[in-house]
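Consider the record:
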Amino acid sequence: MAIAHTLHFLKGVGATNFFDAKNAQENLLYFDSSALPRAYIPIDCSTSKDETDSLRKIIDKGFKIGQAVVEFPPGKSIEVCKEHQSAIKSVGIISDRGRYIKLEPILGPTVLVLNDNYYPGWKAVDTHSEQNIAIYPANLTFRAMVLSEAREYQLELRYWPPWLTAALIISLMGVTILMVLTVLGRRRL
């Protein structure tokens, strides 16, 4: 399953050299030097009001790999996005533990794209200022953060879906009730 997903992704970004992993005689690793890094500063940035507007901009012939279309940003973020011009710059990932990602320091103002699926529950925090940084959908499915101030940012991203707190409370209540019923049942014997 993971191999099929990876092959679909590679085909989606234009890769053409593949091998049959199931029947390969040796261990091979595919490296596409033209692929975007997982975390990067894009060439430029535009904004969109919804998914349809994003799709229209992405399928336009003028759209280039490395550009970012950020959905729904508010006032100041729109200005930073409009003024953003850069070469593609890779941003290193210091730590990735699934639900926690720590990035190398980044100088603002800039736009950061993380080529991971946008999904509710992710929070970004600048550990220098303890300020929450908004995460927006970018290029339809990825995550973008607009870093609007001229300073260094140290970003940490944490995943805690909204339903997890409720699930933990319900589980703890269930365990507590089970323990109380067990103690009361033993006292009756």
About this structure: Helices lie at 2-12, 51-59, 75-83, 162-188. The chain has a mean pLDDT of 86. Residues 36-164 form one domain.
